[in-house]
Design a protein that fits this description.
The protein has 151 residues and is mostly helical. The chain has six helices and no strands.
Length: 151
């Protein structure tokens, strides 16, 4: 059983990355464009440039999109995790100690999910994997074409 689960790990990680990235990007799109219920479920948007809400929404949209695509996954995950840590400790935690009391469950979960992706990478189905494979094939072809000439 463990062997089968281990062989499926990159695919499960890839699906996890896609779902987490999509959900995070949806939060950003809701705040910036008023879709999917809008900012705070009010149907509205966040005023451009307001600190920290607007910047957080941009990080959510861009970071979530990059993570979902698996493009620059580790860097996007680090920035996204940091923004959620900031959101939790500056916005939610002053209200109460526990996430259930202060409404910070989503911020805490996103923070830890992105931190995990920063360490594990994109898994399967990511553009990172496609580009890494293409780069290694090009390096291999270049190494084979540079065979030394024998005298």
């Amino acid at each position: 059983m463990s062997g089968r689960l281990n062989s499926a790990q990159p695919y499960a990680l890839g699906l996890f990355r896609i779902v987490v990235g999509l959900l995070f990007a949806c939060h950003g799109a809701a705040s910036l464009f008023g879709v999917l219920g809008g900012a705070s479920g009010s149907g509205g948007t966040i005023e451009t440039g307001t600190w920290p809400s607007w910047y957080a929404a941009v990080i959510q949209l861009v970071g979530g999109g990059l993570v979902m695509l698996g493009l620059g996954t580790r860097a996007a995950a680090v920035v996204s995790s940091g923004s959620m840590a900031y959101a939790y400790f500056k916005v939610h935690q002053p209200g109460a100690l526990w996430p259930m009391e202060n409404g910070g469950e989503a911020a805490a979960m996103f923070c830890w999910a992105f931190l995990l992706l920063a360490f594990t990478g994109s898994g399967a189905f990511g553009l990172d994997q496609l580009f890494a494979r293409r780069t290694s094939e090009q390096e291999k072809a270049a190494a084979e074409s540079q065979t030394p000439v024998a005298a």
